[in-house]
Amino acid sequence: MKWVKDWYLSDIILLALIGVFFGIIFLGTNYVYDILTAVFAPLGLSQIPNEILLGLWCMPGMIAGYMLRIKGASVLGEFLASVVEMLFGGQWGASTMISGVVQGVGSELGFTLTRYKHYDWLGLAATTATTTIVTFGWDLARNGYAKLQLWLLLLFFVVRFCSMFAFGGLLTRAITSLLTRSHVLKSTHTNTNVN
Amino acid sequence: MNPSFKILFVLIIALEISFTSIVSLNVALIVLAIIYLLAHRVPIKTLAWLLIVPLIPAIGLWSTQYINGTGNNDLFAWVLFTRIYAFVFTGAAFTLTTDVLALADSLEQNCHLPAKFAYGVLAAYNLAPRIKHEVQVIRAAGLMRGQTLSFWSPQLYFKAILISINWSQNLAQAMTSHGFVEDAPRTHFRIVRVHTKDWLLLIGGILLLQVGIFLVPWR
C-alpha cells in the first residue's frame, strides 16, 4: 500500500473540497443542460448538450492531476468529486461513481502517457485526448452509443473532443496559470516542497 | 444492511445493467427499489421528484436512439429510458436510506479504507453548506467589481481553489490537533459489524440479479 503514503490528509481534503466546490458551481449548468436537451430532443440529437458540457464535468480530475502532480491524483480527484455528488443526491445515483472512475482514469492516462513530466500543453492535450476516448468507450455501452448511426457517432465524438479541449484544456490552463502566478501551488505540495 | 455491502450491491447492479438490454429487468429493479424506499418511509414527494428530474435526459436518450438508432432501435430506446430510471432509483435506494457517517465508519472498519480517506472526505462533505454560501460570496464579490462570474470564468474556479487550499490546510491541522494521526491504528467509538445477515443479503441479491439477467426468459 505504498500509494497511500503519497497522500497527506490535507491533499485528500483539498481534492474533496474542490469536488464539492465544482459540483456546486456545476449545479448552475443543469438548467442549460435541460433546456438544450429539450430543444435537441425532437431531432434525436439530445446527446449534444451532454457532449458539450461533458468537458466541464471532467474538469475536477484534470485540474487535480495538473495541480497536485501526484500519481493517481486525477483518478482520486474525479472519483471524490463524483462521490460527493452522489452523496448530495445527484440524480444518477451509484452510476455517478462508475462514471467518476471512468473519467478519472481517462484523465490520468494522459498524464501517464506523458510520464508525469509534461505539465504543459502537451500534457493537457494528452489528457484531453485520453479522457475523450475512454469516456466515449464507456458511453458506447452505457448510453447505447454502439447502436447509433456512424455519422452521429462521429459528430458526438468531435463535439466531445472540442468540449474536453475547451474546458479541460483552455479553461484548466487559464485556472492553473492564475494559480501559478499567485504562487499558491507551492503550499499545496506538502509532499514535495515542505522539506 | 451494512452500508459498505449496500453500496457494493448498488454498484454491481449499475455495472451489470449498463451492459444488458432487458426492459423488464430494469422495470423490475425500479419497482423493487421503490418498494424498498417506501419500506424505509421515504416521503412520496421525494419519490415523485425522482420521477420528474431524470425525465428530460431519459426522453433525450430515448429520442436519440428512436430517431437515429440502428437495428432494433425501438426496443433499445426503451432499454435506455428504463436504464436511466433504474440507475436513479437503485441509487436513491442507497443514498436516501444510508447515513453518510455510518458509511464512512463502515468503509473504514469493514473495508479497511485508510482512516485519512474516510475522515478527509467526510470533513469536506460536511462543509458543503458553507461551500454553497462561499460560491455565492465569490459571485457577489465579483458583481461588486462589475464582473459577472459564470461557470466558464477561470476566476470563479481560481477563487474556489484558493479557498479549498486554505480550508484543507486548516481542517487537516484541526484534525491533527484533535489527535488524528495519519496511518496510525485507531480505536473506535462507533463500532460497525458485519453480520451473517449482511453476507446472505448481498450474495442472495447478486444471485437473484444473475437469475434475472441470464435465466429468466424476459420477452
UniProtKB/TrEMBL annotation, chain A:
InterPro entries: ABC_thiamin-permease_prd. The chain crosses the membrane at residues 12-32, 52-68, 121-138, 150-171. The keyword Ribonucleoprotein does not apply. The keyword Metal-binding does not apply. Keywords: Membrane, Transmembrane, Transmembrane helix. This is ECF transporter S component. The lineage of its organism: Bacteria, Bacillati, Bacillota, Bacilli, Lactobacillales.
TrEMBL record, chain B:
Keywords: Membrane, Transmembrane, Transmembrane helix. The keyword Transmembrane applies. The keyword Electron transport does not apply. It comes from the Bacteria. It is found in: Membrane. It is a multi-pass membrane protein. The chain crosses the membrane at residues 6-39, 46-63, 75-96, 199-218. This is Energy-coupling factor transporter transmembrane component T family protein. The lineage of its organism: Bacteria, Bacillati, Bacillota, Bacilli, Lactobacillales.
